[in-house]
Amino acid sequence: MVQRETSLAHTFVDVADTLVDDFDIVDFLTLLTARCVELFELSAAGLFLADPPRGLRLTASSNHGSHVQALFELQEVEGPSIDCFRTGTSVTCEDLSGEEERWPNVAPAAVGAGWTSVYALPMHLRAEVIGTLVLLRAEAGPLPPADLVAAQALADVATIGILQHRAAEEHRLLAEQLQYALNSRVVIEQAKGVLAEHSGLDMDGAFEALRGYARANNRRLVEISHAVVDRSLPADDVAAAAKAT
User: Fold this and answer.
1) Architecture of domain 2-165
2) Cα separations (Å) of 63 from 8, 44, 136, 154?
3) Can you tell me the distance from the alpha carbon of 72 to that of 136, in angstroms, rounded to the nearest whole number?
4) Reduced to 3 DSSP states, what percent helix, strand and coil does the chain have, rounded to the nearest 5?
5) Is the overall model pTM greater than 0.85, yes or no?
6) Residues with Cβ within 8 Å of residue 30, at least 6 apart in sequence
7) What secondary structure, in 3-state letters, does 11-47 show?
8) Alpha-carbon distance 79 to 96, whole Å?
9) SS3 229
10) Distance of CA 149 to the CA centre of its chain
């Protein structure tokens, strides 16, 4: 028992560590499913994440055999995983042999593969559900309540980690976009100055000339500006093209 509690504690630490520079989400989620199998004596575990254009998608699993993958992939459209995702609440089935009417494809496939009970736990933070954690067992009957609580806690910690990582990535992307916009403005201002000096255009006219040339040649404004500044595109050509339109 002490060894199991120690392993559970280590798993929480590993699952919470998502802010490292080399964070790999696939490795992270695969670790989570593998640890669930070890900790709760399962046959297999799978993790599904929401993919808005396509629905729920299998992202990681503890087992990589074709029959396991096929069963999990079935749950992208039918079964406890998609039910859990749609409702945001856990789905428990202690004996799949009586669920053919409820899940006509998943239940027979699972029983045929030797799995008898299944548990689907939501990965959510407040009202946002981002996926599900699915636990498969060969034995019928309930999973110990303490194991269910621990598994849900792992799913919750993983959810927070994923959302935190997503927020950090979005912040980084926003910062990069802002820096790109600032750098672009600088070079556009420089290009306007070059055009004004060489063609006698005022600043408004120089900007319109740059924009018009870029559109006429299906190129980006900042690309044309760079070319004018480094003299690879003669300023007179840009000004002449603007006057011709």
Assistant:
1) 2-Layer Sandwich (3.30)
2) 20, 6, 11, 19
3) 10
4) 60, 15, 25
5) no
6) 60, 61, 62
7) HHHHHHCCCCCCCCHHHHHHHHHHHHHHHHCCCEEEE
8) 11
9) helix
10) 25
Q: Which CATH number fits domain 174-244: 1.20.144, 1.20.120, 1.10.10, 3.30.1760?
A: 1.10.10
**Alpha-helical runs (H) found in 22-144:** 25-40, 66-74, 80-87, 106-112
What is the 8-class DSSP label of residue 115?
-
Sequence spans of domains, the chain = 2-165, 174-244
> Which pair of tokens denotes residue 122?
């939501």
Lowest mean per-residue pLDDT among 88-92, 164-168, 214-218, 224-228: 164-168
Q: What is the pLDDT of residues 110-139, one digit of tens each?
A: 998 889 999 999 998 777 888 999 999 999
Say how far apart CA 60 and CA 69 lie, in whole Å.
10
Residues 6+ apart with CB under 8 A from 224: 191, 210, 213, 214, 217, 233, 238
In the block, residue with structure tokens 């959510």? 124
Task: Of 21-25, 104-108, 189-193, give the lowest mean pLDDT range.
Answer: 21-25
User: Which 3 state secondary structure label does DSSP give 104?
Assistant: coil
Crossing angle (nearest 10°) for helices 221-229 and 203-216: 120
Q: Is the pLDDT of residue 71 over 80?
A: yes
Quickly count: other Cβ atoms within 10 Å of residue 70's Cβ. Answer: 11
| Distance separating the N- and C-terminal Cα atoms of the chain | 81
pLDDT at 70: 84
The one-letter code for the residue type at 22 is: D
